[in-house]
C-alpha cells in the first residue's frame, strides 16, 4: 500500500479531540442497556373510555387516563384462595367483552414468533373466584366468548371449549395431530406471513365458533439442530412449505354450542389461501377471505353459518399482488348495512365504504399519499381515525375524517413520526411522537385535542444525547441514473471536517413495503450508529425502489425480480455517497439483517467495484429456499420465474466476491434457515473465495440471549474496523507506535492516503494545523 508520512503531533492532537466527548460502548448498548428508550405499553382501555388497566407486579391495576392515578386493583393474586394450579405469576390477561371475567395467562412457553402455550385461568370479578381452564397440560389461546360464559382453547392440535357455569369441557375436534392436522391454530407459514396464530373466533352472540383446519400432512419437513450440553443434540422438525412445494390444505368450519355437527364452509375449488375470517355484525354470517396462490386475486365471501353456503361480497384483482396491509382493515359497522375496507386499487392505499351487497358507496380518503394504519371507526359520531404519509413519505401524521369523506381533521400533525391509541369511546387518545433525533414522547389528549398530561418524554435519554455528544441525523435525497429520486439519512463523524476523507458505513433493509428512511426514533441501532460516528465513520441509509410510503408503483415495481432494482439503487447510493468531497470512495461497507442481509450480499457481489465490505446477518441467499407465501407473493414460483430467481440470488454470484464478507446466522432460525448461509458458504468455497463467518447455536432469527447481541455487535464492529480502518483506529495505532519506538527523535506514522488525517500541504511543504 502506498503510504505518506504525517507528523505524530497531528495524530495526538486529533486523538485529544476525539476523546473530548464520552465514548458510547457496546456494553452500554447491548449488556447494560444504558440507552434503552422508555416506552409506554399498549393501553387496555375499559368500555367506559376513561379508564385503562395495566399489569404491574403480577397485579391488574386500573388507572384514570386523564390523571394517570391508580383508582382500583382489579386482580391481586395474593387474594386468591383455593386454586393450587395458579402460581401467582401473570404473563398476560384479557377481559371478556362485557368485562365481567378476565382470562389470566401464566407459565407461557413460546413456540415460534407469535405462537405459545401456557396455563390459563378465568377470574370472575363479581364472585372473586379463579377457575382453572384445563388441567391436562399447557394449552393455547384461551378466549372467552362475548358473554363470558364459555372459553375456547387449543390443546395438542384440537379445539375445545369449557362451559364456565357447569365446568364441563367439550372436545370439538378429534383428529388433531402434531405435524399432521391442526385445529384452531395456524401452521408455521400462516403464522409468519399472514401474521396470526390463534385461528378460532366466537360469534357475536357467543353460541358459535368459526375455526380453521390445517391438513399439513403433505407439507415437507425441515429439521433444526439445537445443542444443550447433552450427549446428543435436540432435533426440532416442523412443516415448512418452500417455494413451489405443497401448502397445507385449509378449511373453515362453524361449530354451534347448541348442538349438531360442525358446518364446513364452502370455499370452492379455487382457493389456496384463507388469510382471514371475521364475523359480520350478525352471528348468522361469517366473512371468509379466499385468495389464489399468486395472491393477486382476493375475494370476500359471506358464509351462511347454518349451512356453510357462500356468496361473493367483494372481489379485488391486482396486476402484481394484494398487499398484506389491507387484510386487517375490514370493519363491519354495527348497523349491519355497511363495512369499511382499504385498498390500493387507485395506486395508493386508501379507505373505502361499502354496503353489505358489495357496492362501493364512497372513497373516504383519496390523494397521492398512503394511509398507513386504520385505527378504527367511531360509529357514534360517524368518524374514521387513521395514520397517513400525506405530508411526506418519511413522516406520519394522525387524522380523523367523516364517513362521508368530509371534514378531515389533523389529530397529531407535528413534523416527524406520530401515532396514536384511542380509548374505546374515542373520548381520549395517547399520542406518540418522535423524530430521528428525538426519542418518543407519549402524551394524553382529549377528543377536542386538549393536552391533558405527558406520560413519558424520555428526558434521561435526551440528556445522554448531550452527554455523549451525539451527531444529528441529517436527511438527503439524490436522483439516480434512472431518474428516480431516493431518500436517505446520514450521521457524520464526531468533530466532522469537510476537508477529510471518511469511510462510509451503509445500513439497509430494502424489502417490499418497508422503510428505514423515516423521521422516527431508531432504537438501539441509533446508539451503535452514533458509536461508529464517534470512531470516524459516516453512517448512511437509503431506501431503494420497492420500499413503502410512496405508492403502489414505487413499491411493486420489483415484482418478479426481487433484488434487481434494489441492488442497482444501493450501488448508485454508494457511488453518490462515495462522490461526496468528504468521503473515501475506496472504503464503503454495507450491512443488513434478513432481507437486508440478502441485499448487502447482493450489493457486495454485484457492486464489487464499489463496496469494500459487507455484513450479512441471517440472509436469504436463494429465494427457492424460502417459504411459499412470502416468496411467491413477490416472485411467483421457481418454475414460473426461474430467471428472476437465478438473476437475483447471491449464491449464483459467489465468484464475484472481491471485498471482505462477514456471514452470520443463528442455527435455530426457523424463519430464514441456516441452510441459506451453509449453501452460500459452499458456493464461496467452490469459487475459492475467502470470507468470515459466525454462527449462533440455538438462536433464532433475532439472535439474542446470553450475550448473543453483544457478541454479534462486537464482531461486526471489529470487522468494520479491520476492513475500513476509521480515523480513531488509525489514531490509536499512532499512539501505540509512539509508545513502542521511543528512541526515534521524530517519530512518524505511516498512513494510507485514504486514511489521512491532515489538511492539504502548504506551499512550504508543511501541514496546516487542524
Q: Fraction of residues in helices?
A: 10-25%
Strand order in the sheet with the most strands: 37-38-40-39-41-42-43-44
* CATH evolutionary superfamily of one domain: Alpha/Beta hydrolase fold, catalytic domain
Main beta-sheet strand count, sense and barrel state: 8 strands, mixed
Average of pLDDT: 92
- CATH class placement of one domain: Alpha Beta
- Cα shape: globular
CATH architecture of one domain: 3-Layer(aba) Sandwich
> Count of DSSP helices?
13
Organism: Phaeodactylibacter luteus
Pfam families: DPPIV_N, Peptidase_S9
Keywords: Glycoprotein, Hydrolase, Protease, Signal
InterPro entries: AB_hydrolase_fold, Pept_S9_AS, Peptidase_S9_cat, Peptidase_S9B_N, Serine_Prot_S9B/DPPIV
Structure description:
The chain is of the alpha+beta class. The chain has a domain at 469-729: Rossmann fold (3-Layer(aba) Sandwich). Helices cover 17% and strands 34% of the residues. An eight-stranded mixed β-sheet has the order 37-38-40-39-41-42-43-44, with helices on both faces. Strands 14, 15, 16, 19 and 20 form a five-stranded antiparallel β-sheet that branches. Strands 2-3-4-5 form a four-stranded antiparallel β-sheet, with no helix packed on it. 45% of the residues are buried. Residues 1-19 and 743-770 have low confidence and may be disordered.
